[in-house]
Amino acid sequence: MNHVSHARTGLAFALCAALLAAAPPGDVSAAAPRHPIGRAAEWADVSALLENIDDAYTAPPALDTVVTKGYTSGLLLGNGDLAVTSDARDHAQTLYLAKSDFWEAAKGQLHLGRLTIDSPVDSPEDRPGTPAAKDAEDPNYRQRQDIRTAEAQGTQTMGGQVVHTCTWTADGEDLLVTELRTDDDAERLPLRIDVTMPDGSSGVARDGQIWVKRATGTDTDTGWVSKAATSTKVVGSPTPVTATAPAGDTARLSFDLLPGRSVRLVTSVHGNGSYANPTALSAFADRSVERVAGLGTRDVATARDRHRDWWKRFWLKSYIDTGDATLNKFYYGALYALGAASREGHFPPGTYAPWRTGDFSNLKNNYYLNYNTESQYYGVYSANRPELARPYYKLIASEIPYMRNLTHAAGYEGVTFKRSIMPFDMTRPAPAGVPVAPVKDHTKLPSDQQTNATFAALPFLWQYEYTGDKKFFRETTYPFLKGLGDFWLDFVEKDPATGKYVVRHSGVNEGGDDVNSVYDLGYIRRVLTALISGSKDLGVDADRRPVWQEVLDKLTPYPTATKDGLDVILLADEINNPIKGNALLNKNDQPINLEGVVHPSDNLAIGGDPRLLQLVRNTLQWVDPFLPGSRGSSVNGFPKTFTIAARAGWDPDDLIRKFTTVIEGLWRPNLTVRQPGGGQETSGAMETVDSMMLQTYQGVTRVFPAWPEDRDARFVRLRAKGAFTVSAERKHGDVRHVDVTSEKGNRFALASPWGGDPVTVVDEHDRRVAHTTRDGVVSFRTAPGRTYHLTH
Question: N or C end of the chain, less CB within 10 A?
């Protein structure tokens, strides 16, 4: 079992603390609009929240949880492209390197190799007759993920000396830096740095500098080839550094670390993965060598300052305080993992996250589109970081023409998707279109689950609903939705006896051939509703709206039944699944039927149809997906169950108890949770916290809609649908204020958190703003860029 320490950071992290104190404050103007308490106070506020998260490893986690096919328990660093897993054990530190675009068709996403820091004093071959005490407990061991500065901070014993390390990745380039120091009263310590790439080649570039390179093919291959090269040197060493290549795939640096003297190990990574890549592998090696050769102490300090400024701006985009240590550390740990993994200009993280520690990965780390890949983005919109999903849009958009051709070849209009895809089509031209085959054959469709493409489209739709980016909606999202609508209208069948539209030959679970799966019924509703409203926003396709509305009006209702006295929503009207079985509802399972009804479909939330909300709560009660260790709470259901409950109005005190119990059962001191059904998808459950604090449904925003009345909480700049950012605080049962910033000038509607009390609305200049109150909803016109303050 891993140990968690909540002790003071202490001398173990003196190196990073000293560097932090020297760092300039940075400009946060782009990320931190004016707020009543001011930017400096906000940064102090956020810093205190992040610094209170002080979990750490005081003994190494099991090696097979670090070097794993799944979601590693190592410390996590990254800049959206370079993903680094830090692991310390046996008097050595190992940094496993991966790159977002380093893939191959047979194995999926590969790693680049590893960088190992150790001392030859600890090696048996260098101390004849004296075995290394590698398994002995290290009293100096402590490894911590500092998410405030995005650094892996550590202390351990090497060569009989206490060594302090601080590792980070630069932002804007693939540069890895590890800072090393011993105490002032230490002895001279010999160190060696090995950089290894499997199946790679290595060499010495010049005195004190090494390189290693690797590729999955040759420079002349016209198919997909991944190429990467690294170069490493020591900056600031007062002792000579020796560079060698002791093995074909390994290069080594050797030097002595002097007492109290800091040195920096810098590694630059260059390369890419693409079709018909014209850049030679040797060119990437040359670029890495030249970049490292030009780096000095001042350059590294500048990169560090930029790195910390990037993360400062990231943390100030929005923040929350639940008053609960477990919820806070889960929320910020999940958000950190997303910020480190998913950035524009790079490939999105795969199903098991980008931190690869070997040439192996569950499911090849492919992008699974029946929730896994999308779910990591569930919370980024409400958390006011919609830009984190931009890599995802490019991935999906590149697949649409391929999937459209497969759909047409099966005899259907529009587009539907495979269950999983790889990233290769992102770097090659789209294929020519094919006509729709004259005969329909559902067995030739890309998948047995026709909802995959709608799942894939949901982040596109959220991007418009939360940000109001009409250009992206017009050019990208709306055409995608039209393709989905064309498919659904061609796929549903009208029952002549009832006049209802029926959905056949689509599975609610993988391997199914079901009738009226709630997935399908819910996602058809979502697509057609979005098409009707979107066509009005754009002023197009007025002639199509009656067709979409007719299917909406006559679509089969969600199947229901009574179980143990509870009226519940079933998975489907009929299930035919030789893998999962044919039960219409399963105890302790993930509530996949409610995904189509509530979330991520967004078809229902607090403020919606009371009868349907009660059906959802009844279903949750009967299924009990909250059971710790079950599939519903601790496997695939983790990023789903708790958000669905929050959106449906489940008792908030009970929801917090259930949610925190499961988090604590899955928690790792690297500030992530692990469930065996996937990887970084667990970050998607941060939407649970956001949904407890803020929901927008059918144009009406609610603050603290699913939060206990007697619990204090606050949030700053969460994002609401309609292109608003909202801040609010609840204290002693009273909502003290609601601050709203309008980005697009839409009308804002708030379900008053003050009951029948009169509400005052003023702008940032304290001028009264005209508003109306009807049925408990306060609404008023807004202007783009203006902030409004609501009180009672």
Answer: N
Beta strand pairing call for 113-118 and 189-196: antiparallel
Identify whether the C-beta of residue 739 lies closer than 8 Å to the C-beta of residue 726.
Answer: yes
Six-digit token string for 52 = 């209170």
Going by C-alpha positions, the residue among 692, 696, 697 that lies closest to residue 711 is: 692
Cα-Cα end-to-end distance for the chain? 51
**Which is nearest to 573 in space by CA: 501, 635, 525?**
501
Q: Is the pTM of this model over 0.90?
A: yes
Give Cα 58 to chain centroid, integer Å. 27
pLDDT in tens, 42-63: 999 999 999 999 999 999 999 9
**DSSP labels for 64-119?**
HHHS-SS---SEEEESSSEEEEEEEETTEEEEEEEETT-EETTTEEPP-EEEEEE-
- Residue 749's SS3 state is strand
**Amino acid residing at 607:** G
pLDDT in tens, 706-733: 999 999 999 999 999 999 999 999 999 9
Residues whose CB falls within 8 Å of the CB of residue 403, separated by 6 or more in sequence, listed in order: 415, 416, 417, 418, 446, 453
Spatial CA neighbour of 676 closest among 363, 281, 333, 252: 363
DSSP 305-359: HHHHHHHHHHHTS-EEE-S-HHHHHHHHHHHHHHHHH--TTSPPP-TT-S---SS
For the chain, helix, strand, coil in percent to 5 are: 35, 25, 40
Q: How confident is the model at residue 130 (pLDDT cuts 50, 70, 90)?
A: very low
What does the alpha-carbon distance between residue 666 and residue 686 come to, in Å, rounded to a whole number? 15
Contact 612/525 with Cβ under 8 angstroms? no
